[in-house]
Amino acid sequence: MNRAEGRRRQADRAMGGVPQRPWGQVERQMPPVRIISDDQVSAIHLAALDVLGRQGLRVLHAPARALYASAGAEVVDETVRLDAGLVAERLKTVPAGFTLEARNPARNLRIGGGWCVYGAVGGPAYVMCNDKGRRDGTFAEMCDYMRLIQGLNVIHQEGGGPFEPLDLPANTRHLDIYHAQIRLLDKSWQTQTLGHARTMDGIEMAAIMLGTTPEGLCHRPVLLGIINTNSPLQLDVPMAEGLIALAAHGQVNVITPFTLAGAMAPVTLAGALVLQHAEAIAGIVLTQIVRPGVPVMYGGFTSNVDMRSGAPAFGTPEYAKAAQASGQLARHIGVPFRSSNVTAANEVDAQAAYESQMALWGALTGGAHLLNHAAGWLHGGLTASFEKLILDAEMLQMMDAYFEPMATDPGALALDAIREAGAGGHFFGTAHTMERYETAFHTPMLSNWDNHPNWLSKGSIDARTRANSLWKELLAAQVDPALDPAVDEALHAYVTRRKAEGGAPMN
Question: Which of 118, 227, 353, 370 lies 20 to 30 A from 461 at CA?
Answer without folding.
Answer: 118
